[in-house]
Design goal:
This protein is 55% helix and 13% strand. It is an alpha/beta fold. The chain has a five-stranded parallel beta sheet with strand order 2-3-1-4-5, sandwiched between helices. Helix 3 runs antiparallel to helix 5. It starts with a strand and ends with a helix. The model has no long low-confidence stretch (mean pLDDT 94).
Amino acid sequence: MLTVALTGGIGTGKTTVAGILRGMSVTVIDADEAVRAVQAPGQEGLRLLIEAFGPDILAADGSLDRGRMAARIFADVEARTRLEGIIHPLVRRWMAERHREAIERGETLVVHDIPLLFETGRQGDFDAVLLVYAPEAEQLRRLTELRGMAEADARARIAAQIPIERKRSMATTVIENTGTTGELERAVAGALSQLAHA
């Protein structure tokens, strides 16, 4: 089985690429889905977060108030490190379980969608790394114009990650996402073909 990591930077279009891959019948194991699963009410992750950060991180329905939590950790490096220390091991375990299921199904290619791949030093765990790329100015434009984020917040989110140009130099294969949807779909198909013949 070929095990590939898919990553990018905030606003580069990684989620769109993951959707294209799923449309091509590729199994994609999503770290964001894992985060939601382990932080759900009744799960160990949420219990540990409440212990670490207090009950004010909860919404009225008992779920994690993601906006409040995000505002807290992006303003405080120590808080972000504490959160990552709690959640990342649980996410890895959840993703490993999905990976085992894919092996049991006889999959020949599995893609792990991991936004903070390089930040967590996990690139060596995979046969190849696909990076979805857009220049930082385009990241900023997408976050402010398309997602409605305040520019200061968008810049803080971008700054919290390894710069996209550095990530580009660390990846096995780069998928450019600066054109049309059709161009992106062709780039994804080309990247898969390149991996298959590597």
